[in-house]
UniProtKB/TrEMBL annotation:
Top-rank lineage group of the source organism: Bacteria
SUPFAM superfamilies assigned to the protein according to its UniProt record, in alphabetical order: Actin-like ATPase domain (SSF53067)
Leader sequence segment: none
Cross-referenced InterPro entries: ATPase_NBD, ROK, ROK_cs
Pfam entry (one): ROK
Name of this protein: ROK family transcriptional regulator
Homology family: Belongs to the ROK (NagC/XylR) family.
Amino acid sequence: MHTDLVAALDIGGTKIAGALVDGHGRILHRAQRATPAQEDGETVMRAVEETVGELAGSPLWGRAGALGIGSAGPVDASTGTVSPVNVPGWRDFPLVRRVREAAGGLPVELIGDGVAITAAEHWQGAARGHDNALCMVVSTGVGGGLVLNGQLHAGPTGNAGHIGHISVDLDGDPCPCGARGCVERIASGPNIARRALENGWRPGPDGDTSAAAVAQAARSGDPVAVASFARAAQALAAGIAATATLVEIDIAVIGGGVGKAGDILFEPLRKALGSYATLSFVQRLTIVPAQMGTDAGLVGAAAAALARQTDTAAAV
């Protein structure tokens, strides 16, 4: 059977997006539902099934040879289950089996959302042409993924590259994950905003206390806002340098809401990197903003499905 398309799902705490994607990463058909994140697991699954059903209603569906899922994590690709922190109704939920049933038996490939975004940036975005890369998503949380030797390195469970939970401050604040001083505890959007507020920053008349508002204040020269971003940049630099030292990456790509802060983040980040990435083999490491935008999760899930198809075809 000639298959030149794959189906893709991007499942997060806010929305469940679906698409049919061709071999060049182009989205040909879309479907979307809001994630009923606070409902029970079956209600969440119904929204997934409706999204898949809408894709299956497209005349293009018959050309799809596999389905890729990028899901909020933790995921476990070895068992096909997911336990997303922000979807409490799903704990060890058999997502792969349920999606395969909804998709009429198509092969299903599951990866974490950080890995999915990495796959997209490597295939079509800022890490294109790089064989060894780290891609990070810095937003409500901090996630990531690795490309090593030209291949997506998801690890046995699909969570490899989860840089948000590298500890960069031995005596730092306890992180909800159970460790201390994690990159996420210092560099995520809510933590940038929390730190600014604790140190005396005050929002404008609109009362906006988001990291984007802190970034705006930093651009206007507010010293507390500038310092909160500098601290986040230092944590990111330490985590990126540790990763580069361990596995020899030559580019780090940063996306997510906080990544959109621009120079307020990237200037102190590049400066801090110089203090941490000191060994000869990591000195050429470059840091760039992500390019793929909001469709990264879908395009990356499609890339994983296409890679599975290629592997399967090669094995036959």
